Amino acid sequence: MTEPATEFPPPKILTLSPAHKPILITQGAEGRLYKTPSPFQPDQFCALKYRPPKPYRHPILDARLTKARISSEAKVLDRCYREGVPVPAVLAKDAAAGWMMIEWIEGEPVRVGINKWLGERPEDDAVVDHSQEDETPLTDLMKRIGVAVGALHRTGVVHGDLTTSNMMLRPWADDRLPNGHGDKAEKAKAVAGDVVVIDFGLAMQSQSDEDRAVDLYVLERAFASTHPRAERLFHHILDSYREAFKKAPGVLHKLEDVRMRGRKRSMLG
């Protein structure tokens, strides 16, 4: 029995090597992400982001939009990479065909690492005492996040969807990992690694303090919804952001305005 054909086959570049079948990692409304052996270094993997044709759009309009979005994302990534921002390198692209090949980042999303550190959610009425807990590994991660976002904004780029799902923890070498064994050491290892910012599909180049403040607000709300027990440590991100980016005071002042507007919208429903 033959398998049914998919509505949209993968891009041609993924069919050139039958010996290496690409792995579909995720699929969203706008595109797909594949993990595939690198054509430049076959012993390593790369990520291929593909925007398939959209049947609900006029073909000419769809082709123009796809080409523009792939080109824009690749341009932003190139700029960030050249400026030393921790992002994946762009290896190749064919904007007309709707794909971009980038460096594969090993490790887990920051979201997973933080949730491993936090462990199981306590009962609703339980009072959690953090005073006796060494939170240094977690606060160090928060500081690394702040440095990464500061570097991004310093380059003149805003991400557009800053969440802990769009940041990876690239594993450190063994000599940098926390020593010891047991639950405490495992928790520390869960939040160890270099922060790499990914998924620039909504990114744009901007020098606006307002745009940068919205980036930070989106990240702050992501912590409130995804890691509410770590939200009280969010100030470590902002402190490191301030140290990494000399224009941070204006952005943080604007963040207060953005927060106020957010609270008003919440009250009005």
Automatic annotation (TrEMBL):
Gene3D superfamilies: Phosphorylase Kinase, domain 1 (3.30.200.20), Transferase(Phosphotransferase) domain 1 (1.10.510.10). It comes from the Eukaryota. Residues 19-269 form the Protein kinase domain. GO terms for molecular function: protein serine/threonine kinase activity. The keyword tRNA processing applies. InterPro entries: Kinase-like_dom_sf, Prot_kinase_dom, Tyr_kinase_AS. Keywords: ATP-binding, Kinase, Nucleotide-binding, Transferase, tRNA processing. The keyword Cell inner membrane does not apply. It catalyses: L-seryl-[protein] + ATP = O-phospho-L-seryl-[protein] + ADP + H(+); L-threonyl-[protein] + ATP = O-phospho-L-threonyl-[protein] + ADP + H(+). Its EC number is 2.7.11.1. Belongs to the protein kinase superfamily. BUD32 family. Component of the EKC/KEOPS complex composed of at least BUD32, CGI121, GON7, KAE1 and PCC1; the whole complex dimerizes. Component of the EKC/KEOPS complex that is required for the formation of a threonylcarbamoyl group on adenosine at position 37 (t(6)A37) in tRNAs that read codons beginning with adenine. The complex is probably involved in the transfer of the threonylcarbamoyl moiety of threonylcarbamoyl-AMP (TC-AMP) to the N6 group of A37. BUD32 has ATPase activity in the context of the EKC/KEOPS complex and likely plays a supporting role to the catalytic subunit KAE1. The EKC/KEOPS complex also promotes both telomere uncapping and telomere elongation. This is EKC/KEOPS complex subunit BUD32. It comes from Podospora pseudocomata. The lineage of its organism: Eukaryota, Fungi, Dikarya, Ascomycota, Pezizomycotina. The gene is BUD32.
